């Protein structure tokens, strides 16, 4: 089959790392399926895999006895089941499906993404979506919403299910009507999904963007209000709390940011939930503006992995700091049902051809990607 592979000698920017080559079809286990990939989604897993950092994705395979010398990335896809393993009962050959990236053993705990066996397909597990065929666990297959194109169906699951878990997975800090939710990167894949989920629940989504164009897009997508991060200058680690001048300057900007939230909400009301994924640059502000008794839930660190903050506001205001990683099976099903019901739309804004895959990832790598989600046309571009 044709596949875009990543090899250790090419680790680096996506334009260097990805190469189209012919490889052998992957083996299919007893609880796995072989799926003809019609389209695949673009997300940061492909960026990290291309760089071989923070995880060497090819070396990682050696621990599982699956060393191939290459890695096929891609953690979002839609397609058609063409073969099934001996123990597969949930799907049939010919089913049109959406694939989520959760990979775990058949006997995994109920919250499967917390199981010791849990991995991310297309990142920690080889033979992801960026090929003509892929292998997935039967538990990772969900019905393709009938009203969506293959490209739309391939674009939403990773970001959407991740946002769903962040908003509903950690009781009692679950999304309720009237809750203010602060969402970083509101025009991106994660932000567009989280904003729609907040709106659908009757919450108040305040999203952070970097341009007026992105602000307008977010308002069309259901945001209550937007904040342009370029209007503030306090981003980055909060390194030295003992330097009173530096801390004063940081605090003045953080308070100004907080007051803008209040202005947009129309009341002196802080976010009950903060959807955090930039990490290093925004983490101090997220913890500061979070409401007393509220929760900062973090799923990534796209600006860096060092988390710094003034812990006095953490214990005195009794705030919760919660890590979150993708989603479990029930959460994926629940989110997909919202898409099937047309409550959530995929927000697909650009589609690339298969040979343009590296270019699509390079745009994301350079932070020049379009608003919303991107997809790669694979089988759907061959007369299917």
Task: Give your account of this protein's structure.
It is a single chain. By secondary structure, this protein is of the alpha/beta class. Strand 10, helix 6 (189-200) and strand 11 form a beta-alpha-beta unit. It contains twelve helices and 17 strands. The radius of gyration is 21 Å and the shape is globular. 28% of the residues lie in helices and 21% in strands. The mean pLDDT is 95. Strands 3, 4, 5, 8, 9, 16 and 17 form a seven-stranded mixed beta sheet that branches. It is found in: Cytoplasm.
Q: Indicate the radius of gyration in whole angstroms.
A: 21 Å
Q: Name the beta content range.
A: 15-25%
SSE topology string: EHEEHHEEEEEEHHEHEHEHEHEHEHEHE
Query: Helix tally?
Result: 12
Low-confidence sequence ranges: none
Mean residue pLDDT: 95
Q: Quick one: biggest sheet?
A: 7 strands, mixed
Determine the fraction of residues in helical runs and give it as a percent range: 25-40%
Helix vs. strand class? alpha/beta
What best-fitting shape do the alpha-carbon axes yield?
globular
Total strand segments:
17
Terminal-residue CA separation: 16 Å
Organism: Pseudomonas parafulva
Main location: cytoplasm
GO molecular function: crotonyl-CoA reductase activity; RNA binding; zinc ion binding
Protein name: Crotonyl-CoA carboxylase/reductase
List its salient traits:
alpha/beta; 7-stranded mixed sheet; 6-stranded parallel sheet; 17 strands; ADH-like_N; Quin_OxRdtase/zeta-crystal_CS; NADP
Summarize this entry quickly.
The protein is of the alpha/beta class and 384 residues long. The chain has helices at 14-17, 44-51, 57-61, 150-153, 157-168, 189-200, 212-220, 244-265, 283-289, 312-316, 329-340, 357-365; strands spanning 2-6, 18-22, 32-42, 77-84, 96-99, 102-103, 119-120, 133-137, 141-143, 180-183, 204-209, 225-228, 273-276, 295-298, 320-323, 348-353, 373-377. The chain is built from twelve helices and 17 strands.
């Amino acid at each position: 089959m044709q596949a875009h592979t990543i090899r250790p000698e090419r680790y680096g920017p996506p334009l260097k790392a990805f190469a189209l080559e012919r490889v052998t079809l992957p083996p299919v286990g007893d609880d796995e399926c072989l799926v003809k990939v019609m389209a695949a989604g673009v997300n940061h897993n492909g960026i990290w895999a291309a760089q071989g950092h923070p995880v060497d994705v090819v070396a990682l395979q050696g621990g599982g006895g699956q060393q191939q010398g290459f890695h096929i990335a891609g953690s979002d896809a839609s397609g058609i089941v063409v073969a099934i393993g001996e123990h597969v009962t949930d799907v049939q050959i010919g089913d049109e499906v959406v694939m989520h990236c959760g990979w775990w053993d058949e006997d995994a705990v109920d919250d499967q993404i917390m199981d010791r066996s849990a991995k991310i397909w297309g990142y920690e597990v080889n033979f992801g979506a960026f090929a003509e065929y892929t292998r997935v666990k039967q538990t990772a297959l969900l019905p393709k919403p009938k009203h969506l194109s293959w490209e739309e169906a391939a674009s939403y699951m990773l970001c959407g299910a991740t946002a769903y878990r962040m908003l509903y997975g950690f009781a009692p800090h679950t999304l309720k009507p009237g809750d203010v939710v602060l969402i970083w990167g509101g025009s991106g894949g994660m932000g567009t999904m989280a904003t729609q989920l907040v709106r659908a629940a009757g919450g108040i989504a305040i999203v952070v963007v970097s341009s007026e164009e992105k602000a307008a897009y977010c308002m069309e997508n259901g945001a209550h209000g937007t904040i342009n991060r370029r209007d503030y200058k306090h981003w980055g680690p909060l390194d030295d709390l003992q330097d009173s001048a530096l801390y004063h300057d940081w605090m003045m900007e953080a308070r100004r940011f907080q007051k803008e939230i209040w202005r947009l909400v129309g009341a002196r009301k802080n976010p009950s939930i903060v959807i955090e994924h930039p990490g290093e640059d925004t983490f101090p502000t997220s913890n500061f503006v979070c409401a007393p008794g509220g929760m900062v839930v973090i799923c990534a660190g796209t600006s860096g992995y060092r988390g710094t903050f003034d812990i006095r506001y953490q214990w005195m205001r009794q705030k919760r700091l919660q890590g979150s990683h993708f989603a479990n099976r029930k959460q994926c099903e629940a989110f997909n049902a919202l898409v099937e019901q047309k409550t959530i739309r995929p927000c697909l804004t650009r589609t690339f051809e298969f040979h343009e895959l590296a270019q699509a990832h390079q745009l994301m790598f350079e932070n020049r990607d379009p608003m919303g989600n991107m997809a790669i046309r694979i089988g759907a571009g061959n007369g299917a």
